[in-house]
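To assess whether the prediction recovers the assembly geometry, we first specified each molecular entity separately, as shown.
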Amino acid sequence: MVARRAPRPANQPGGHATEEQLSRYVTDASAQLMWIEVHLDRCAPCRARLSTLVHERDPGTAGLINRVGERLAAQVAAEAPPAARRRSVGWAARWAAPSALPWLAMSVLTIVISFGFDLLARRSGAANPPLLLLLAPVAPLLAVAASWGPQVDPVHELVATSPRAGLAMVLQRTTAMLAVVLPLLLVLGAVTGTSPARWLLPCVAFTTLTLALGSAVGLPAAAGVLGGGWLVLAVIPAVVTERMPPPMAHRAMPLWALVTVLAAAVVVLRRQAYHTGLAPRPPEAIQNTARYENER
Amino acid sequence: MSLPEQPAPDQAWHISASSLTVRYGRRIAVDGLDLTFGAGVHGLLGPNGAGKTTLMRVLATASPATGGSLRILGRPSGDRHHLRAVRRRLGYLPQRFGYYARFTVREFVEYVAWLKEMPAADIPGAAQRVIERVQLGDRAGHRMRTLSGGMVQRVGVAQALVNDPEVLLLDEPTVGLDPEQRVHLRALLRDVGAQTCVIVSTHLVEDIAAACSDVAIIDEGRVAFRGSVDQLAAAGSREDSGDSAVERGYTALLRQHRTRVVAAR
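The predicted structure of the complete assembly is given in tokenized form:
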């Protein structure tokens, strides 16, 4: 971030430091050459040239660097060899923290919600559907958010104070849960002659689509766009016509399934994007990440 | 690291609170605190129920302040825009440290590193370093459920350190540790405190004497004393109860504070 703001001399070809600037940096301690330090942080070729210059012009500093280097090398050699590299927890495990009680709670709640919706829809018929049914795309999200509360999730306090707490985490956990619960409900529905899975399809489609879109435009924007779309395509038609809106009809279900598969493919392909978090990325956030990475 | 610090307002202190108040319903848990913390190890001492944990939770962004102002790393605590950036730079060991029993030590610490949005490539190395720092290197592959209480507590310290935090908040970190582990943890805190703002909440006076550079005594949500450990030790006299100078200083300061509060009413 500073590199962009720092004044860059006109005589600086291609962003690299000139010989003369580097030698002033080495010999003149009073020189105001902050931008060179910033540049050196990022530019290996210039660091190499600086190292040559230091060894030529400043034997005192060169000697100090060599002594520190030797001492460090001895210390590293004396320490135990680092543990063998092993695979860390995969991204799938991180999306779905392994804690039995919250998992059970969110799965059971979601199953209850889907059967409840199915029952409600059967009772009312096609005309004048209860508006509650229009909550289908978000109802499981509420169940998930409630299931990872402080009473159920042992790590809640740590999660809630982490930068990752928020919409992204709820969506990721919902995706993980629905990937398990939806197949189960398809079987249960076939056995009992009901169709509870139908009420989860819009949710799984919306969740994966929000994550897919969010990896490009940021989650709040993605959620806003999709929520607005649902309002226009489903909620308003349902209120105006007092009938089940087209997106909730039986014949729309294959379409939801298709959307889900496509969005899930995008999520898998872009999984690296979720590692750094899906907040809107204003320039400042990117700068902070760069700064964070520079410090390490 | 030669980049100048990110320009943030009021960056002189890692944490600065003025007239900070926290209410739970009608109960006032933190009552108009004025406190600032910079780099160093700061002890937060006080009787049980004094408001230490409430204060720690507010500093950790786990619960909101209800009055006054609080700046963490230069940002107002209610500032949602910078909340994520601030949280990346915090480390927190809650009073009741919970964990996923199925995770190994390494998996758990790496999971917290992921929660802190650390760059993926840095996570395995950072986790290994902090696990070794709390002397659990030989247990890294063991599941959390197989650990003793003291080991779990040390995993709690490791997860708080994994992102190299600028503000480290430890709520009763020495609970469950044996004397040798306690000594080691205090040394670790002094080491970390050289560059970091470490706030240690405890009701054990000997932790303060051994690890902290300065002390704040909290009683009924108010600051009863703020000063160096030496000042704390010098405050007591032979008549005060306690087994050490620091303990006698603590009881004397607490008594004086309570007398002042009663007189003010």
